[in-house]
Design brief:
alpha/beta; nine-stranded mixed β-sheet; five-stranded mixed β-sheet; about 30% helix; about 25% strand
């Protein structure tokens, strides 16, 4: 790799780190990071903070000021050349006098992909794409799926003992994993637009499902999948003074319970007549609400439902160095697998240590 290519990779990875600051905050836009480099020195950096606010390129150019003239702009996503909630970034780049633009991945929206790069090249700017491509693609994976399918990216997070149990025979489940693992889960919540659980988790654990890792106080949408609406009305997740809550239920839900929740400010969506709501219907409803990234935290029934429907994009399993035994509750309900050839095969895995726990995660893949 040449010195120039090496520098491009390094500065674009720096832009990725800036872009990660916007995870969970930019929907329906993607998180994007950008840095401006003049003579090998970073003179400006920025990221997209929220839909309707300036894009990463504009933030970085403003930070650079007059030092942007003749500089190189590194941006994780191809600059836009169309009007949306904000003006085209290509025009800001041209006005700033940028000499060279290096980006990671093209815009995945087929209606505009390539347009930004073409506009800049036509204006005489050197444009290089495909640098640090994997890291940049990972950053916008949920957006890529959303613009192509209208459905959110789903990360399934499970926490279990070493023998795959999420609770004892009596239903006790706190705490399987250690404090360090649980702190990381709060970071995951901060990076997603919504956190989803089934009614069983609400009945058994009464979780709050809030995020304590975001200093701004932002909270992801809490989604409860409850076709019969059997969750206790006094459950902590229905306290919307802490965070917004959406209940996905069916026509089987008692009207008085629906009314009681709506009076508290809980959003309720009835999705069909059957209490077992198809996973594709769940994803379609969340997509309609412009939810790009969902953290599915269980329980075993919802996890099995999503896996049976092949509706999981990434798998995260926290394993604690504990044994509960066969009378404990399994982390995933039956999948209907009878032959080994029917077992779900996962993509390549990565393993990370969290004190005495392990995180086993599928590597990112980009459809």
């Amino acid at each position: 790799m040449s010195r120039k290519a090496s520098d491009d990779e390094r500065f674009l990875r720096l832009a990725v780190r800036w872009g990660r600051r916007g995870l969970g905050r930019t929907r329906p836009n993607p998180p994007v990071g950008a840095v401006v480099v003049q003579n090998g020195r970073v003179v400006g950096a920025g990221y997209h903070r929220r839909a309707g606010l300036p894009h990463a390129e504009v933030e970085a150019l403003r930070a650079a000021g007059s030092a942007a003239a003749g500089a190189t702009l590194y941006v994780t996503l191809e600059p836009c050349a169309h009007y949306g909630r904000t003006p085209p970034c290509t025009e800001a780049i041209l006005q700033a006098g940028i000499r060279r633009v290096v980006y990671g991945v093209p815009d995945p929206n087929p209606h505009v992909s390539g347009g930004g790069a073409e506009r800049l090249r036509a204006a005489g700017i050197e444009v290089v794409g495909g640098v640090a491509q994997s890291a940049c693609a990972e950053l916008i994976a949920p957006f890529r799926k959303f613009v192509r399918t209208g459905k959110p990216w789903v990360t399934l997070k499970l926490a279990a003992s070493l023998d795959g149990r999420v609770a004892t025979a009596s239903g006790a489940s706190r705490w399987i994993t250690n404090e360090k693992s649980r702190a990381y889960v709060h970071r995951l919540r901060a990076e997603h637009d919504a956190v989803l659980v089934g009614a069983g988790t609400i009945v058994r654990d009464d979780p709050e499902l809030t995020c304590r890792a975001d200093k701004s106080g932002r909270q992801p949408l809490r989604v409860v999948l409850d076709g019969r609406l059997r969750s206790p009305l006094g459950a902590r997740v229905f306290d919307v003074t802490r965070a917004p809550t959406l209940v996905l239920t069916s026509d089987c839900a008692p009207r008085e319970r629906v009314s009681a929740l709506e009076e508290r400010g809980v959003a309720v969506a009835r999705l069909g007549t059957a209490p077992e709501i198809p996973w594709e219907t769940v994803l379609a409803e969340l997509g309609r609400r412009e939810i790009l990234a969902v953290l599915l935290e269980g329980g075993p029934n919802v996890a099995a439902q999503a896996l049976r429907a092949r509706g999981v994009d990434r798998f995260l399993l926290f394993l604690a160095a504990k044994l509960i035994g066969g009378d404990g509750k399994p982390m995933i309900d039956p999948l209907g697998v009878r032959e080994m050839t029917e077992a779900l095969s996962l993509p390549p895995l990565r393993v990370r240590r969290f004190a005495g726990d392990w995180l086993v995660a599928t590597e990112w893949s980009y459809p």
